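Session log. Operator J.P. requested a structure for one protein chain; no other inputs attached. Running the standard single-chain path with token output.
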Amino acid sequence: MKKFNDLAEFVAAEGTQLGPTEWLEVSQDRVNLFADATDDHQWIHVDPARAAEGPFGGAIAHGLLTLSLIPHFTHQLYSVDNVKMAINYGYNKVRFITPVPVGAKLRARAEISSVTQLDSGVQATLSTTVEIQGSDKPAAVAESIVRFIG
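Structure written below.
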């Protein structure tokens, strides 16, 4: 994990590559809990027997589950000390490139793409790639926006 002592150090790191994180297994239990939380119980996610006969050859994670893991990975990628708070401000581009089979392991890498000074702190855009162990193609790529209040 990259530790930044303050916002000035973080601002100076624009363009820096971060990661990779540790691998995280996407279990059927995690997928089922996400389905319960979002009321998205589509069979390709929650019915392994039926999904085995489907287009992906088995159950896959929700794309939004993959996206929702970015904060988990972010905490492994970097931290900024001496700030009042960090706020997830949203996402620009999000693409789900490759389906994530249940049981696959994911990790992330990111780049601090841009940092903009605000009156109360800074706004950063991070380009994050979520990788699947053993796959040449990523699960997802996303531009996340974080606001740090000094």
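Operator note: The longest strand covers residues 105-117.
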